[in-house]
What does this fold into?
Amino acid sequence: MKRVMLGVLGGLVGAVAGGIIGAVAGTFWISVFYPNDIYGYSAILIVVFFIPGGIVLGALVGVVATLYFTAAGGASRDAAC
It folds into this structure.
């Protein structure tokens, strides 16, 4: 149960970090490539593509990393006994 809760917590932290990284990456994309800005298309590009993509990738990486490190920590403690 502890690993599940840590996995959920890692997913939430990863999702928040991924959303922030997605927003920064979208802003960088717009500053480099200068897409069409009629009717706020630049903001739509960031909000629709970069932020959700960052949230999904961040949550996946957060869950996988948390479960990997909790499994590695548990295995090393068991082997030391």
Notes: The first helix runs from residue 2 to 33. Residues 8 and 63 are 7 Å apart (CA to CA).
